[in-house]
């Protein structure tokens, strides 16, 4: 008995429309599905359907209403303190998004944008920061930003300052820590059976390392340090791409400025 192929199945060389739109940098896959369901997307002049497959030559057009919707979306930079989780509430700890309130808006924010409760709708973390870590956390309504920071093909640099102990050594850890182990931190470690990408790791001062990573495995830095005998006693993310934490105080947030790019 012959069966019709599922709607999402396509000819060789085709991909789902939402993936194609994301690959073109138009939006995230989730946004694409929303726009398609609203009738805001046309393929070769015809209104597209959810699950549609397209080839590389397909002409994709997006309604101005979708572009206007994107322009109203905000991206927020938060200095997460210790004790807040990045995503959903867990084990009695509050999610970092609860700090995004008018009273916590940094007075030094160069953006003239005003806070509105509507900006909380769909606001989600683009990446995580452990509950016992501090520093720059990005929350965004914009799927393009999320894909840029945490998409499958993202190689965005993230910079951390990491205070460490080495066994009983808590002062001048740099002097006690073997150079060969520092070389392993830079390249040569594996987590969960997979080799880590090369990292830039250097001493910032005798008790603090500076890490620059281009991937984000779960609790990656803490686990890397454990593998070479170091214990992390403080971890702070200070930069993502070209955006730095700067002078933003703990527990406060600001908007990503219109001309600011990761």
UniProtKB/TrEMBL annotation:
Source organism of the structure: Ramlibacter henchirensis
- UniProt GO MF annotations: 23S rRNA pseudouridine(2604) synthase activity; RNA binding
Gene3D superfamilies in the record: Pseudouridine synthase, RNA-binding S4 domain
Q: Which residues form the RNA-binding S4 domain?
A: 15-71
Lineage of origin: Bacteria, Pseudomonadati, Pseudomonadota, Betaproteobacteria, Burkholderiales
| Assigned keywords, A-Z | Isomerase, RNA-binding
Q: What is its EC number?
A: 5.4.99.21
The chain's coiled-coil residues are none
Give a single Pfam family match.
Answer: S4
Show the catalytic activity.
Answer: uridine(35) in tRNA(Tyr) = pseudouridine(35) in tRNA(Tyr); uridine(2604) in 23S rRNA = pseudouridine(2604) in 23S rRNA
Indicate what this protein is called per its UniProt record. Dual-specificity RNA pseudouridine synthase RluF
Q: Does the keyword Ubl conjugation apply?
A: no
Does this UniProt record's set of keywords contain Phosphoprotein? no
